[in-house]
Amino acid sequence: MSKAIKQMQMDALKITFGSVQDFVLLSITGLTAQQENGLRHTLRKKKVRLLQVKNSLARLALDDVGVKIGKDSPYWVGSTTFAWGTSSAGSLARTIEEQLKNQKTAAQYKDKVKVKGGIAEGQLVPFDLMVKMPTREEALASVLGAILGPASQVAGCLTGPAAQVASQIKTISEKKEEEAAPVAATA
To answer: 184 CB contacts (<8 Å, ≥6 apart)?
Structure first.
């Protein structure tokens, strides 16, 4: 491959990887063209893209965009296919795991598609941990729950005594009405 072509590929990879911070690295070997096309098609429906890149070019492109993976990393053993898309690292990993464990397709991908690991926010992350990462919506919900939980308890503490007083006043007024009703009936 000439230097000009390598440079054009590097520039294209920098543009592609420049805005992406979450990847899953796969090893896809032994799939037929139909199986690989089927995998790409089903993942594309879920907004996940796949790109197989020469390891040396991918390493250089990732280094240039700020993702540092050493030369002797197990991520660079064998062919490497990058998967990216969706809104977060957790949802990306779950989508890929779901596709690989799908009952209809699991048999054809067994021992042919292997997950090497993941990159989340530019940091290397084991795939098992990446699957457990919350999506953006889940993270926001947990933060809001943490914020609103104590606030609702404070509101309950403030309204609780007032509700008790109002209940006691209502009970007293009902008793007075009951006492007044028999007196009016006898008169």
So the answer is: none
